[in-house]
Amino acid sequence: MLRCMLRAKIHMATVTESNLEYEGSITIDEAILKESGILPYEQVMISNLNNGERFETYVIAGKKGSGMFCLNGPTARKGAVGDKIIIFCYGYFEDRRIGKNKPRIVILDSKNRISKKK
Predict the structure, then answer these.
(1) Which residue spans within 15-83 are E strands per DSSP?
(2) What is the pLDDT of residues 52-94, one digit of tens each?
(3) In whole angstroms, what is the distance from residue 29 CA to residue 61 CA?
(4) H or E segment at 113?
(5) How confident is the model at residue 24, as a pLDDT?
(6) 25 is catalytic
(7) What residues contact 96, with CB distance under 8 A and at least 6 apart?
(8) Alpha helical stretches, state H, 1-118
(9) Beta bridge partners of 89
């Protein structure tokens, strides 16, 4: 049996941009993606702490070191610049591997810089 388990999380990111005219997705600083292990075009779940919205989309890599978290297309309606969000990425694991799975968690400060990794 496969179980869906947390694989990676980016905690307390601040939305820096919103682009309603884009096709859709979330753009995230490439350096933060690398630290989290989340890949471009991978599906993510986003939870907005400011308004309670929870939605799925895919990731686009943004400029490395920019601190960018841009809600694109329809996701731009799910939050505003300055909102705090949490990005979750899940994976499917066989029962025998679940105990070996340790999610990569990246915690950000108020300027979207990495303050802690777990």
Answers:
(1) 17-19, 25-29, 43-48, 54-62, 69-72
(2) 999 999 999 999 999 999 999 999 999 999 999 999 999 999 9
(3) 6
(4) none
(5) 79
(6) yes
(7) none
(8) 30-36, 95-98
(9) 8
- Enter the CATH code of domain 2-108: 2.40.40.20
State residue 5's pLDDT score.
96
- Distance of alpha carbon 106 from the chain centroid: 10
Active-site pick, 18, 22, 25, 110: 25
Exposed, middle or buried, 106 (CB in 10 Å: 0-12/13-18/19+)?
A: buried
58: annotated active-site residue: yes
> 58, 90, 92, 110: which is the annotated catalytic residue?
58
pLDDT digit string (tens) for 9-30? 999 999 999 999 987 799 999 9
Least Cα distance to 87 among 103, 111, 65, 66 occurs for 103
